[in-house]
Specification:
By secondary structure, the chain is an alpha+beta fold. The chain has helices spanning 16-25, 60-64, 71-80, 83-92, 112-121, 167-171, 227-235, 257-263, 269-274, 279-288, 302-313, 368-386, and strands spanning 8-12, 30-34, 54-55, 97-99, 104-107, 127-129, 135-139, 142-147, 150-154, 156-159, 177-189, 200-208, 211-219, 223-225, 243-248, 315-334, 352-354. Helices cover 29% and strands 27% of the residues. The structure holds flavin-adenine dinucleotide.
């Protein structure tokens, strides 16, 4: 008896989302992943090489609340495939995981290379073609994938090209793209912090447009960075520059400057502040206020004291643009109004599916962006199975 011919599915993009979708389809479909580089290389820098593959939040609504773009769309997606499913999946392919104190989930090996290798091993029935796709054409017989002078026919297509290129492939098919902007990145500032470059602080409190953020912070040669800045860049990703950020560098504890001045009358003011904050920062703000850093504490009057406190607790900076550091995920992508969240199928083109960062979905740091890839990848695979 002849074997039943399997439907042919092309997955464009062999990143985490495309490969996850391929995994669930490989037994029942003829799967080809087109990848411009090597499959799963984008997983290697994640989590600083440790791969923060999920966040230990098991309630799907709470999980979805960590996505400034895509929250409501993800309710149905996460109800089908959430954090527990991700952890189970990775354990099933030999990647045991652990949960850090901050609820980030990592492989026990702390190695993105290990995750990549095990994941690739699990894709034994998937064909990979290392070519950039130039065009997807659709007609009544299905889809044609065009790579240079080569053309390949498929019944269904999953677009998983990530957030950095490939939007024109889906625009050509009639889809709208919410304009891509960087998120989870550092910020350039109007102020020149070059002399503070590399000076870091744990747990500052930052305020921006009425919202408060907590986290680590660092000056760079062109601006500011660190987890607290990534959060701001994420929330503000769709806003216009410039915007003002105010930092409280003493959010972590009590700091009674007048009491300290009284107790240390003969100490240089820079040395007093340096007991709480980096010395170069103490000198910077004193210089900024035209106060001699070697001035004795008893010579700091009430006006100067208030100016110092204002700088330490309400340090103002002006964000002018983004910097290419951090996780740098893309805010923007395929407009969610044109995608069915129950199947990840296009509402415009039957047989066309999406998963991962190519969608207008982005989350905070902490494993949320990979979770989006796993969950939308899984739902796209289910959608294809149901559409058979
Ligand atoms: C430095 C860094 C660290 C990060 N750390 C974390 C973390 O720890 N946890 C977390 O949750 N998220 C993290 N992220 C975010 C996460 O890596 C991304 O959200 C995720 O990789 C998106 O997966 P994707 O499959 O949708 O797209 P991608 O990973 O971008 O993969 C898309 C693939 O498609 C290919 N491609 C594109 N266009 C074409 C084309 N025309 N033809 C063929 N192939 C094409 C690309 O080569 C690429 O391999 C990090 C991001 C960065 C940059």
């Amino acid at each position: 008896m002849g074997r039943e011919l399997k439907s042919k599915v092309a997955i464009i993009g062999g990143g985490p989302a495309g490969c996850f979708c391929a995994y669930f389809l490989q037994k029942d479909f003829d799967i080809t992943v087109f990848e411009a580089k090597s499959p799963l290389t984008t997983i290697l820098p994640t989590g600083g090489g440790r791969c923060n593959l999920a966040h230990a939040e098991y309630d799907f609504r709470e999980l979805a609340s960590n996505y400034p773009r895509g929250e409501k769309f993800l309710y149905s997606v996460f109800s089908k495939f959430g954090t527990a499913d991700t952890i189970d999946f990775f354990e099933s392919i030999g990647v045991d995981t652990y949960v850090q104190d901050d609820l980030r989930v990592f492989p026990l090996s702390n190695s993105a290379v290990d995750v990549r290798n095990k994941f690739l091993e699990s894709l034994e029935c998937v064909k990979f073609i290392e070519k950039r796709v130039d065009k997807i054409e659709e007609d009544i017989s299905g889809f044609t994938i065009v790579c240079g002078s080569n053309a390949y026919k498929f019944d269904k297509v999953v677009v998983a090209v990530g957030g950095h290129s490939g939007f024109s492939l889906v625009e050509n098919l009639g889809h709208s793209i919410v304009s891509p902007r960087p998120s989870l990145c550092g910020l350039k500032t109007k102020e020149d912090f070059v002399e503070l470059s590399g000076v870091s602080f744990s747990s500052v409190k930052a305020k921006c447009k009425g919202k408060t953020y907590l986290g680590d912070f660092m000056f760079t040669h062109t601006g500011v960075t660190g987890p607290v800045i990534y959060q701001i860049s994420s929330i503000m990703a769709r806003e216009k520059f410039p915007y003002i950020i105010n930092i409280d560098f003493l959010a972590d504890g009590d700091f009674d400057l007048q009491g300290l001045l009284n107790e240390n009358p003969h100490k240089a003011i820079k040395n007093l502040i340096s007991e709480y904050l980096p010395k170069s920062f103490a000198e910077f703000i004193l210089g900024n206020l035209s106060i001699n850093p070697d001035e004795k504490c008893h010579r700091i009057n009430g006006t100067l004291r208030d100016k110092i406190i204002d700088k330490l607790r309400n340090f103002e900076l002006t964000a002018l643009g983004t910097r290419p550091d951090g996780e740098v995920v893309t805010s923007g992508g395929v407009d969610l109004k044109e995608v069915d969240s129950k199947t990840m199928e296009s509402k415009l083109v039957s047989g066309l599916f999406f998963c991962g960062e190519v969608l207008d979905i982005d989350g905070f740091c902490g494993g949320f962006n990979l979770q989006n890839c796993w969950s939308t990848g899984y739902v796209a695979a289910q959608g294809i199975m149901q559409s058979q």
